[in-house]
């Protein structure tokens, strides 16, 4: 049976609406944002939005999911080199740490967290869903990378899931503290300092 796929133009328009919707929701909040405003900024007619999404709530949930998937894809790409770090594990960890910090401190990640918590009373399950799409999947993928490194002898034998949690905690903890939960933009040098410190501590604990 031949699989039927949506025309590319329709897919592109849907993605464009989702991107604009997330920007508007992040700026104005769920209650104050309107479908008309989203349609205007996306440069489409309001009925076009409803052709893709049945109502405002569906659009909100879809835009949050799309933003979370984007952050997750970037994060997974950042740790991909850890599949085969070769002899220079520390350098590869450093590159991955720097990229993850930039992603987590970026506008999209900050907006995603802020919006999920701001709408917690209205959409209580949204925080869990966003965490599953981003941090949970990232932790599992990172655990897989550390398991491979341990098997190859690049890291000492360890619980890879716990090692992944420790590595991310060494990055995210200082980032949230120093950025005041995203209220302060950290300069490049400070991000690099957090990455270097995290990698140094992690290698001391899990390196050979």
Task: Please describe what this structure looks like.
With 208 residues, the protein is an all-alpha fold. It is elongated. It starts with 7 loop residues before the first helix and ends with a helix.
Concise structural overview:
By secondary structure, the protein is an all-alpha fold. It is built from nine helices and no strands.
SSE diagram, text form:
Elements: H1 8-32, H2 35-42, H3 46-52, H4 56-79, H5 89-104, H6 107-118, H7 126-152, H8 160-178, H9 188-206
What top-tier CATH class fits best? Mainly Alpha
Q: How many structural domains? A: 1
Beta-strand content bin: under 5%
Rg on CA atoms, Å: 20 Å
| DSSP helical segment count | 9
Largest sheet: none
List keywords for this structure.
single chain, 208 residues, mainly alpha, Tetracycline Repressor, domain 2, 9 helices, 0% strand, disordered N terminus
